[in-house]
């Protein structure tokens, strides 16, 4: 048991560092074209932070694309989530650990505190376990409590690898072209109750899926 625990600790120390290095080298070869930058600028013009919202399959390239922007990211409290959290930290982000149990509420409280002090935050819209491309209510709760707008994001690539996972995590191939899309910010009214949260959850899901389709249709595809 001790040997297994030592190997796990060593793996946690080394694997995220190696992946972060590989991401920087690999993705630096891609040619990135940004669409909808005016939507990001809109929030900057009014002096607001954002709640970044994106589907789970996009996560690795989103981390790379936003690596120069400070943000607190919600990450699952699971064992696998520890690798994601450490990878995010290697790329310059802070993390709030959460899941679908009570630890998720603590993570949301941490995000509320961060957003309240003007920090950018990020929540993977379909969570750590899916189902894929079905929005969960976390971003809506955060936006409603803080007044910070949700900024939808997506990307597509001319050539990519899709991992056999529940979300088919996508990774652009070296030297591919990547189109990175920002959608129109979603402003959520304060103090929403259950019915209102569901209404805006569906709206966020709709916007993210429209952005998803728009991104992949650039390459004549209906998805990844």
Description:
Helix content is 46%, strand content 19%. It has one domain (2-217): Glycerol-3-phosphate (1)-acyltransferase. Helix 1 (2-27) packs across helix 4. With 224 residues, the chain is of the alpha/beta class. It has helices at 2-27, 37-45, 59-65, 79-90, 102-116, 138-146, 194-217, and strands at 31-35, 51-54, 72-76, 94-98, 121-124, 150-157, 160-162, 170-172, 177-182. It contains 7 helices and 9 strands.
Write the layout of secondary structure elements.
Elements: H1 2-27, E1 31-35, H2 37-45, E2 51-54, H3 59-65, E3 72-76, H4 79-90, E4 94-98, H5 102-116, E5 121-124, H6 138-146, E6 150-157, E7 160-162, E8 170-172, E9 177-182, H7 194-217
Parallel strand pairs: 1-9, 2-5, 2-6, 3-4, 3-5
Antiparallel strand pairs: 6-9, 7-8
Second-tier CATH architecture: 3-Layer(aba) Sandwich
Low-confidence runs of at least 5 consecutive residues:
none
Query: What is the terminal-to-terminal distance?
Result: 41 Å
Output the CATH topology.
Glycerol-3-phosphate (1)-acyltransferase
Brief overview:
With 224 residues, the protein is of the alpha/beta class. The protein has helices at 2-27, 37-45, 59-65, 79-90, 102-116, 138-146, 194-217, and strands at residues 31-35, 51-54, 72-76, 94-98, 121-124, 150-157, 160-162, 170-172, 177-182.
